[in-house]
Amino acid sequence: MTFVDTAPGPVRRTLRAPGVRVGGLALLVAVVACTGLFAGRGVTPDGVRAVLLGAGGDPTAEHIVLQLRLPRVLVALVAGACLGVAGLVLQSALRNPLAGPEVTGVTPGAVLGAVTATGLGLAGWESPAAVVVAACVGGFAGAGLLWLLTGRDRGDPEQTAVYGVLVSAVLAGLTAVVLLVAPGELGSVVQWLIGSTEGRVWQHWNLLWPWAAFWGAAAWLLAGPLTLLRCGDEQAAAAGLATGRGRGAALVCAVALTAGAVSAVGALGFVGLLVPHLALAVFGADLRVTLPGAALLGAAVVCGADAVAQLLSRLLATALDADRLTLPVGALTTCVGAGLLLVVARRRADER
Question: What is the rounded radius of gyration, in angstroms, for the C-alpha atoms of the chain?
Answer without folding.
Answer: 21
